[in-house]
Automatic annotation (TrEMBL), chains A, B:
InterPro entries: HTH_LacI (IPR000843), LacI/GalR-like_sensor (IPR046335), Lambda_DNA-bd_dom_sf (IPR010982), Peripla_BP_I (IPR028082). It comes from Devosia nanyangense. Residues 15-69 form the HTH lacI-type domain. Pfam families: LacI (PF00356), Peripla_BP_3 (PF13377). GO terms for molecular function: DNA-binding transcription factor activity; transcription cis-regulatory region binding. Keywords: DNA-binding, Transcription, Transcription regulation. SUPFAM superfamilies: lambda repressor-like DNA-binding domains, Periplasmic binding protein-like I. This is LacI family DNA-binding transcriptional regulator. The lineage of its organism: Bacteria, Pseudomonadati, Pseudomonadota, Alphaproteobacteria, Hyphomicrobiales. PROSITE patterns: HTH_LACI_1 (PS00356), HTH_LACI_2 (PS50932).
Length: 342, 342
DNA sequence: GTGAAAGCGCTAACAA
DNA sequence: TTGTTAGCGCTTTCAC
């Protein structure tokens, strides 16, 4: 008896489909169908199988399933850092979009490193992912090539680029910068400083900012590049450096809210009046931005919403629904608050 | 020719181990060993295989690998909400602990719901996970049973409990509450209020708080339960409700920093002097807590560090290293700042 | 140190 | 609607 011979030597694997089938008195494939495609079996079959599954405590082996069917349920999501509230929000949105689906998101952190990104991508390829998501554009050429060859849906998020690998849902950093530039121009600020990253999306924000200012015949008098960490404490330090280098500075645009918040708090300690003496603006609209005093003028980016849209778009594609477009530009808004207006 | 027959019909699967073996002129099993157990093959073999892999662009199929070997590389991590900065930090720590290992963390959000937790746990069982991690104790009895039967390492984090399912790395919420109770007692506050969750870890914080106050013959005059969202805005609202119900309140302990920050900001608007008229304390030590004015007295919990320790402990177990203990209590600290001391 | 045979648990394709 | 057959791609014996 082959079945019982197997049964006897069965500590390793646990309950198999075959065991359920035997208990239910049906064939293994019927169990498989009742579980994975309930619409294609009779009501009676469904019940018999459900009972047998409950009785045996059967748990499907997804590795076997994926191996045979060729359809994986894993979707790696690459995030620079999950400690960044915006990325966390985006991730939450993506995660919510896939709730109740057959897919699972696998987290992969790239820590802002191209090398790590490449490594992480390589390390998830053995899973034969159903799709891949990125919070941020894929920078490295090698990784882009790898992903194109993969021939699975690739979703890039956060930024807006004319040449995504495949699908894209993002904001235009240039637009955010431009909105702030126009706002500064309208307010009539002279002696303007920019502090934050000057590469990648920082570069786009800065370029947009300059563009916006240019409409008013203005330009930043000082650019303080900050490529390292950009915490609240760094914002305070940045403020001091800017005031050293540009003592009569009238307005500063920080490329992230954390920096701007740090600057506002330090300004209070230095008894510099914001916005009267110095106007301060941020980017991102953190929860705290509207609550601090003075409340922070900033660019609102709906990260959660973006993640949700991206997740839904990708899910639709995976469930082979019609897709109107594979590129989506999320709205972005200037939030004018008291840190730039009296 | 079976091989070429297969080759001809080979669009689906891509390059297989067998293809690499043919190119390298060795057997499939040798390729497998060269890749997964390089120590057990000769230098020459390793080089031949490496060349053939590069030439063919081979990517291992982890589903086949796991199916055959029975050793999965997936570790689901259950988090209530990734938007909570502490949990995000813990997750980052856990993620860092597994960097460079063969394991992959799969994110699963439970949104503070027992039902969802159970569902999510069930949904990852088909992966035959190598281990399971939880940020928080597993509450539901059903899930606890499921996990015990699973017979894989289970790591619970964040809280401290005498009866974990398996492994545990956490803080004592009761201790945090007690430290704050003692601090309030020492400062001689009367008319004391507590605001925040009063269930689960909130209950522990509150109990500890009461215990600490009791040492000074004191007790909370008001407990404001907040089981719903607890954002900065909610903290401001909570402050107002407390002042309505307890107008001569001298000190408030908020169970999270967000609430306390909201209260501090609202107090400034209401022109209530902190700490002179009203002392405010929080729990968690968010980045901003030390930067706000007045800086916030709070309980410091090293979430990143905890996640890192938990990840390392679990990794050691999976790599079958000796483990001194499977339970670890992380240090917790009272950070006395100006919001409770003049 | 290397290889041959077998089968992990499941589902696609075909058949009834 | 249900069942039979075959094999997904790999690694575990076991042999040499």
């Amino acid at each position: 008896m082959k079945a019982s011979a197997r049964r006897a030597s069965k500590p390793p694997g646990g309950v198999r489909l075959e065991d359920v089938a035997r208990v239910a008195g049906v064939s293994p494939i019927s169990v498989s169908r009742a579980l994975g495609n309930p619409g294609r079996v009779s009501e009676a079959m469904r019940r018999k199988v459900a009972e047998a599954v409950a009785k045996t405590g059967f748990v499907l082996n997804s590795h076997a399933s994926t191996l045979k069917s060729g359809r994986s349920t894993l979707i790696p999501v690459f995030v620079s850092s999950i400690q960044n509230a915006h990325f966390a929000n985006a991730l939450q949105g993506a995660s919510d979009a896939f709730e109740g689906s057959r897919y699972h998101l696998v987290m992969a952190q790239t820590n802002y490193s191209d090398r790590l990104e490449q490594e992480m991508v390589d390390s998830v390829l053995p899973f034969k992912p159903a799709a891949v998501m990125f919070t941020g554009m894929v920078q490295s050429k090698g990784t882009r090539e790898t992903l194109k060859r993969l021939a699975v849906p690739v979703m890039e998020m956060w930024d807006y680029s004319p040449t995504p690998i495949d699908m894209l849902v993002g904001f235009s950093n240039a637009e955010g910068g431009r909105l702030m530039g126009e706002h500064f121009g309208q307010r009539g600020f002279r002696k303007i400083a920019y502090a934050g990253r000057t590469r990648d999306r920082g570069a786009q924000r800065l370029a947009g900012f300059q563009e916006g200012l240019a409409l008013y015949g203005s330009a930043p008098a000082l650019v303080l590049p900050m490529e390292g960490p950009r915490t609240v404490a760094d914002g305070g330090a940045a403020l001091e450096r800017i005031l050293q280098q540009l003592p009569d500075c009238e307005a500063i645009f920080f490329a992230t809210d954390s920096l701007a918040l740090g600057a506002i708090l330090r300004a209070a300690e230095l008894e510099i009046e914001v916005p009267k003496t110095l106007a301060i603006a941020g980017y991102g609209d953190l929860d705290i931005a509207r609550h601090i005093a003075p409340s922070l003028t900033t660019i609102h980016v709906g990260a959660y919403d973006m993640g949700l849209r991206a997740g839904k778009m990708l899910r639709a594609r995976l469930e082979s629904k019609e897709l109107a477009s594979t590129i989506l530009r999320c709205p972005i808004q200037l939030e004018v608050r008291t840190s730039t207006t009296p």
